[in-house]
Amino acid sequence: MQRIDQHFINGAFVASHGQHHANLHNPATEAVIGTVQLGDAVDAERAVAAAKAALPAQAARSVAERLAMLGRFRDAMAERQDALHAAVLAEYGAPSARSRWMVEHPVQVIDEAMRVLADFPFQRGVGQAQVHLLPVGVAGLITPWNSNASFICGKLATALAAGCTAVVKPSEMSALQTQVVMEALHAAQLPAGVANIVNGLGQDVGAVLSASPDVAKISFTGSTATGRAILRSSADTFKRVTLELGGKSPTVILDDADPQAAAALAVQAGFINSGQACIAGTRILVPESRRAVFEDALAAAVRAVRSGDPRDAATTVGPMVSERQWQRVQGYITTGIAEGARLLAGGEGRPEGLQKGWFVRPTLFTDVRNDMTIAREEIFGPVLCVIGYRDEEEAVAIANDTAYGLSALVIGSDEARATAVARQIQSGRVLVNTLRHEPMAPFGGMKQSGIGRESGAWGLEAFLEAQTLVVG
Ligand code: NAD
User: Fold this and answer.
1) Domain 250-432 in this protein, CATH class
2) Class of domain 2-245+447-470
3) Deepest in the core among 64, 69, 231, 361, taking most CB within 10 A?
């Protein structure tokens, strides 16, 4: 049992003022493995005050000083990969390929922020003016449970690179992973107050950050519903906001695609992070002219997916993060059946042989209409929908008929044709015949998938304000 009862404020571990606690679970066994003490408004305000006091010095630090600071943070995270791996397995249950990525990615995102900072033009001449890009101020960074350390490290490194100071409010469900990040920050000996982390609930600690007049910017990753609440409360103080929200991403399989290769890629896109990914390709659009062959290939690919013990190398889908999430996913499977969708693989309940753990059967529905609940709402589990289309025009119309616009995938043998289809999809990111990610390109959503972009120079600019100087 691990007991986490301190926050990281003003460069030190401090006792929590908030006295309530939450249990931490191993989702593969349902066992309680620890507790986290939840901060309250007093803890949040202490962290904001520390960040505010540290801001003038941080804003004045040179690029070289900021790079040195981030380098120490990066090294401290790199030294803690084994500890982070143990936390990811115990608290999240990510299968081995994913859990390895989850411990390497935090180091990569700090490196990427450093690469951007090293050549970023903070001053630019524009006609007779000089434009200075200045740190926006204290940043509130609010993150979800599904890739905890990467989100904290990416947002924090970018805020510090911009010359901001920050208060992080991570998900209370990922406290073991957050503890590793706090220990890295402590070891990195950053100037006191530049980086603070407060454990707690969104309605308590998160709400203080989005309401505080001393916080100038919120960078949030999480659900669209929470993003909407944050946007509303940020309006009172005109905060700058970056919102990375949910998705219901389409995978468009064109009629010239190879069925086996297309099915393998589509299922990988749909089941990324055990289906608990904002970018998961959960609506698979197939041409009516070759529907049977694509359905067969997809069904075979989904049946071949192993959902179970995350420590087993053959497992690619691990448990849902919590009992609540398991119930939610089960509810969507029941709704899909009730609305008339037809199961090609999986269904309700746990995978065969598993009595414990929040495991879901990898599930594929067909005969799905785009107006059904399972095609409209983000399920956040390994549940995919097959939707038929008559021609390219209809495929694009169905792909775009969603409140979301975060990611999309187009699969086809004729790359030029697939790319032309991709260009018509209203989505912040569209992939063609690949799941490769470009970390220096902007990442973010159109429509209700968010506001603004992260990554690369776009990510850094989101923590800056332009000041135009014209001297007579
Ligand atoms: P969530 O919205 O429930 O919580 C995210 C964070 O917001 C948590 O730290 C939570 O405590 C906090 N929060 C909750 N209410 C708040 C409030 N009123 N004020 C301030 N903070 C509050 O999301 P989750 O369940 O942790 O994560 C899953 C969601 O995140 C999914 O919808 C997924 O699509 C989305 N997501 C988006 C991206 C992206 O880059 N677009 C990436 C990962 C996850």
Assistant:
1) alpha beta
2) alpha beta
3) 361
Local confidence band at 97 (pLDDT 50, 70, 90 cut-offs): confident
* d(C-alpha 168, C-alpha 269), whole Å: 29
Asked if residue 212 has its Cβ within 6 Å of ligand 1, the reply is no
Q: What atom in ligand 1 is closest to the CA of residue 171?
A: 9
Q: What's this model's pTM, rounded to 2 decimal places?
A: 0.98
pLDDT surpasses 90 at 72: yes
- The residue contributing the CA closest to ligand 1 atom 31 is 223
- Residue 453 in contact with ligand 1 by CB distance below 6 A: no
**pLDDT, tens digit (0-9, with 9 covering 90-100), for 186-214:** 999 999 999 999 999 999 999 999 999 99
Q: How far is CA 391 from CA 367, 394, 407, 432, in A?
A: 17, 5, 21, 18
Q: Is 278 a catalytic residue?
A: yes
pLDDT tens digit sequence for 252-272: 999 999 999 999 999 999 999
| Region(s) of the chain under CATH 3.40.309.10 | 250-432
Domain with CATH 3.40.605.10 in the chain: 2-245+447-470
Please enumerate in sequence order all residues whose Cβ is within 8 A of that of 420, keeping only pairs 6 or more positions apart, or say none. none
